[in-house]
Amino acid sequence: MKFGIISGSNRKNSQSFKVADYIQNLAKQQSTESYLLDLSKVNIKYWDEGFWVDSKTFDLEWTKASTELHSCDGIIIVAPEWNGMLPPALVNIMHLAVKGEFANKPVLIVSVSSGINGAYPVVHLHQSGKNSFANFIPHHVIVRDVNHVLNDYSTVANEIDQSIRERLNHALQVLNVYSEAFKQIRSSDVIKNVPYAYGM
Predict the structure, then answer these.
(1) Regions of the chain where pLDDT drops below 50
(2) Parent domain of 85
């Protein structure tokens, strides 16, 4: 089993990366392989019409990321809320990931907010996933007041920190079950031979 984890912030040393890093270590504890795509460390070209000419040569950084994401059984998107929206770099990934990277795979959304919000990234991603054929599972997690949780792997700060850790642990277990089931779905000839690549 392999999970692809996308840290959706392009800020250096972001809270989103902190959460993604925690999730990657949690996956390791559950004996799950993972690939972490940190959008603050790669300079992926923004989508334009040249992508349709040849998606493999459109951008080398995206080609590398795409190859890794294709090899994953499940996807975790760590999505920070910027001004009530997704960061542009993460929106760009949703434009680019239409060649099977997320197709017929379960996707767990982990939203991140420094305050008490964090619901909008969940809604935005659900609206953005049509052409990627991403299957967003109903178990999303919202990490609110992110500056004060998940700051130490071994030390729990408070009850809220403990609750977030328990929710993330359960969400990864759920994603693992979905990922196993979706292997059978992806093996179906009906799924492999899609005549309507961009919806019906």
Answers:
(1) none
(2) 2-47+54-188
